[in-house]
């Protein structure tokens, strides 16, 4: 969707999609807006509760079944295990995706890792395709005035025809661009100090895996320290995503992470959106 400042102000039921790297403040802003009659749609929450719920539970149950005591309880239906993912705590999804590397160090074997990555990609695409229906339900069923769509940092990796166009058709896309080198280094350092599971495009993963194995003089992925590989690959992944996000931004608007950091109220957020529109008009 494209606007003038005047048409945006007159837009009664605002529908905004936030895009950008993980850690730029998308979820913080979305949580703040929830206090002001905005429906918060979290792509990762939808993935965990709908599209990966059963695979996550299968993985957990497979681990539990290796313990004789728990195995007997599960087989007799005396206990049950459920997914307790939260909007601000996506632990089950991260645990499912896992980290590539030595299984004895908590890593996931390459074949299983590639399979989980494909499942995550399919789930994220499905979560994006649910956005128009949740826009409708947010207003018609739940009675919210506005809609904020908080998409995961890997959206730019999907390469699925029609996905970005769908978001642009039904919402105002705001890309949060990191322009501050200090913040960029902070995000990278944070990711390296506490490495988390990530989604990689298949071509990118195999290319970087080959480089890493050669640099570390290793023969195959199962020899890798999962955390070390994740730390090593993150800056490369980070920089590979920038041009992909900037291409998506052509269908919407752009604000800087510094500008977003100055937003603490709904009014300040709406002012930021108007600034992004005016910047493109000038």
Q: What's the N-to-C terminus distance?
A: 18 Å
> Could you name the ranges where pLDDT drops below 50 across 5 or more consecutive residues?
none
How does CATH name the architecture?
3-Layer(aba) Sandwich
Q: Class, according to the CATH hierarchy?
A: Alpha Beta
Q: Supply the number of structural domains.
A: 1
Sheet with most strands: strand arrangement: 2-3-1-4-5
What would the principal axes of the Cα set say about the shape? globular
Helix proportion: 55-70%
Question: Would you write up a description of this structure?
Answer:
- It is a single chain.
- This protein is α/β, with parallel strands linked by helices.
- It has one domain (11-273): 3-Layer(aba) Sandwich (Rossmann fold), CATH 3.40.50.
- The mean pLDDT is 92.
- A 5-stranded parallel β-sheet has the order 2-3-1-4-5, with helices on both faces.
- α3 crosses α4 (53-64), α3 crosses α7 (110-129) and α10 (181-193) packs antiparallel against α12 (226-248).
- It contains 14 helices and 5 strands.
Key traits:
282 residues; alpha/beta; Rossmann fold; five-stranded parallel beta sheet; 14 helices; 5 strands; 9% strand; globular
Topology:
Layout: H1 5-9, E1 15-19, H2 26-34, E2 38-42, H3 43-51, H4 53-64, H5 68-75, H6 91-97, H7 110-129, H8 131-140, E3 146-150, H9 163-170, E4 172-177, H10 181-193, H11 202-216, H12 226-248, E5 253-256, H13 257-261, H14 266-281
Parallel strand pairs: 1-3, 1-4, 2-3, 4-5
């Amino acid at each position: 969707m494209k606007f003038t400042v005047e048409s945006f102000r007159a837009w009664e039921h605002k529908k905004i999609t936030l895009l950008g790297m993980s850690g730029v403040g998308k979820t913080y802003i979305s949580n703040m807006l929830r206090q002001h009659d905005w429906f918060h749609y979290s792509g990762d929450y939808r993935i965990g509760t709908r599209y990966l719920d059963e695979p996550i539970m299968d993985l957990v149950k497979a681990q539990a079944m290796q313990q004789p005591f728990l195995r007997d309880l599960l087989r007799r239906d005396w206990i049950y295990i459920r997914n307790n993912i939260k909007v601000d705590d996506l632990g089950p999804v991260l645990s499912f995706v896992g980290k590539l590397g030595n299984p004895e160090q908590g890593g996931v074997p390459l074949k299983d890792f590639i399979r989980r990555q494909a499942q995550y990609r399919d789930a994220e695409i499905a979560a994006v395709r649910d956005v128009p229906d949740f826009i409708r339900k947010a207003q018609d069923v739940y009675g919210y005035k506005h809609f904020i769509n908080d998409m995961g940092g890997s959206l730019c990796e999907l390469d699925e025809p029609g996905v970005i166009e769908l978001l642009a058709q039904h919402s105002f896309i705001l890309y949060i661009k990191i322009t501050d080198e200090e913040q960029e280094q902070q995000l990278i350092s944070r990711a390296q100090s506490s490495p988390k599971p990530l989604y990689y495009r298949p071509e990118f993963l195999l290319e970087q895996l080959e480089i890493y194995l050669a640099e570390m003089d290793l023969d195959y992925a199962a020899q890798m320290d999962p955390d070390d590989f994740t730390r090593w690959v993150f800056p490369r992944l980070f920089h590979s995503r920038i041009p992909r996000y900037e291409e998506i931004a052509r269908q919407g608007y752009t604000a800087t992470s510094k500008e977003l950091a100055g937003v603490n109220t709904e009014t300040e957020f709406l002012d930021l959106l108007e600034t992004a529109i005016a910047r493109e008009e000038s």
